[in-house]
Design a protein that fits this description.
Layout lengths: L10 H10 L17 E6 L4 H13 L5 E7 L12 E4 L5 H18 L3 E5 L4 H9 L5 E5 L14 H12 L6 E4 L2 H10 L5 E3 L23 E6 L8 H10 L7 E6 L15 E5 L3 H10 L2 E4 L9 H6 L5 E4 L14 E4 L4 H6 L3 H5 L2 H12 L1 H17 L1
Parallel strand pairs: 1-2, 1-4, 2-3, 4-5, 5-6, 6-7, 8-9, 8-11, 9-10, 11-12, 12-13
Helix pairs in contact: 3-4
């Protein structure tokens, strides 16, 4: 039955009315114009790939559009260049999630954006609450790597639960953006609901000129580079084990590992042929990419893998595992090689430096053909502008 004029509003409507305060207010205390094109970003994380995505969005957005970012306070320093950020306290947990949702609601009714862009899995929480509160802005959702990628070979209850949540909640968004062609095909095959669009990830150009590429002579060591976290997903443990296995057979293969955080138990597994440098600024990482013979990516699962186009932009081929989106990011034999994690020691033992050197020009060309930032920015901002007009 339709409500009469005297009926009380529902709970969510009362909450949203209280949060509105009657009208929208800007950060300076003045009302925000409703026709001001504004994108509100909502993310429960602002590190690694998501941080790169947000910063590139800020750098490339049209001058007439503004952005505000609801992000964790603990990650604020990693995205210091985001001018208008709304940090919320806490970590993942009950308190953190409540703070996340509340910050999202308050920011929405203060800013009155025409587009709300939700990033990563747990942003589905404030997305659902905003829908229940009657938010009318066009909503975009990007998982930045669907969780089901981790369970593609698992048919147990975890896989079923992930599919149930991921396959249905994102349909609350008007548009769902997939970051790789692999994931786009995967979720289509699984029947995930929603209006899915493919806008493949990209990276900014190298901060190192091609003339600074420090290639060595044919007789030098074969230098491999690992860039990433030291967790189960990234497979650093598998790589160090394989390096130990081939140490006597291939003493010429050297490994450099770059990444934030502590290695923990992995430090004890470091063979003499490997070195750990810790975290490095982006321009310094580009120099390491450029001077390496190849990047090696032994991930157990991966929704995209930004390190691959980062290597390619420096003319460095990528050696990738056969998991997730990784094989789709290179052309085997031209811009890199694909290996099975089970056969990693045998794969490393057969590597030839001359083969990798022959791939450098094609690797650099592949970046400009497929992963150039202008292509990504054009497609993404066009989608946001269409959303704002709806």
């Amino acid at each position: 039955m339709a409500k009469t004029a005297t009926e009380k509003p529902g709970t969510f409507q009362r909450i949203s009315s209280a949060l509105r305060g009657g009208h929208a207010r800007g950060a300076d205390g003045k009302g925000v114009k409703r026709n001001s094109p504004t994108t509100m970003h909502v993310s429960d994380t602002a590190i690694t790939g998501v941080a790169t995505y947000l910063c590139l969005f800020e750098q490339t957005q049209p001058a007439h559009r503004k952005s505000v970012y609801v992000i964790p306070a603990r990650h604020r320093e990693t995205v210091a260049e985001l001018a208008d950020a709304v940090p919320f306290p806490g970590k993942r947990g009950l308190y953190g999630f409540c703070a996340f949702v509340l910050a999202s609601l308050r920011t929405y009714y203060r800013v009155r954006p025409d587009v709300v862009f939700f990033h990563s899995t747990f942003s589905m929480l404030p997305m659902a609450v905003l829908r229940l509160c009657g938010a009318r802005a066009h909503m975009i959702y990007c998982s930045h790597g669907w969780s089901i990628v981790r369970y593609t070979e698992d048919r147990g209850w975890k896989s079923a639960l992930v599919t149930l949540v991921e396959g249905h909640v994102p349909r609350l968004a008007d548009t769902v953006i997939n970051i790789s062609s692999y994931e786009h095909k995967l979720v289509a095959g699984l029947g995930y609901r929603g209006n899915h669009k493919l806008i493949e990830n990209a990276v900014a150009p190298s901060r190192v000129s091609s003339g600074q590429n420090a290639q060595r002579e044919e007789g030098d060591d074969l230098n491999l580079l690992f860039v990433g976290r030291f967790d189960k997903q990234k497979g650093a443990d598998l790589l160090l084990s394989a390096m130990t296995d081939i140490a006597a057979l291939r003493p010429d293969i050297r490994l450099t590992m770059i990444g934030a955080g502590e290695m923990g138990e992995l430090e004890a597994a470091m063979p003499p042929s490997a070195q750990f440098l810790g975290a490095k600024p982006q321009d310094e990482i580009d120099r390491w990419y450029a001077s390496a013979d190849a990047l090696i990516v032994p991930s157990r699962w991966e929704g995209f893998g930004l390190v691959v186009p980062e290597a390619l932009r420096n003319g460095t081929p990528a050696l990738v595992s056969d998991r997730g989106a990784l094989p789709d990011l290179i052309r085997a034999g031209e811009t890199g090689m694909i290996f099975s994690l089970e056969d990693l020691p045998a794969f490393l033992a057969k590597l030839q430096r001359k083969d990798l050197l022959a791939m450098r020009e094609a690797s650099r060309r592949s970046y400009y053909e497929r992963f150039d930032i202008e292509r990504w920015a054009s497609a993404l901002h066009a989608e946001v502008e269409r959303a704002g007009r709806n």
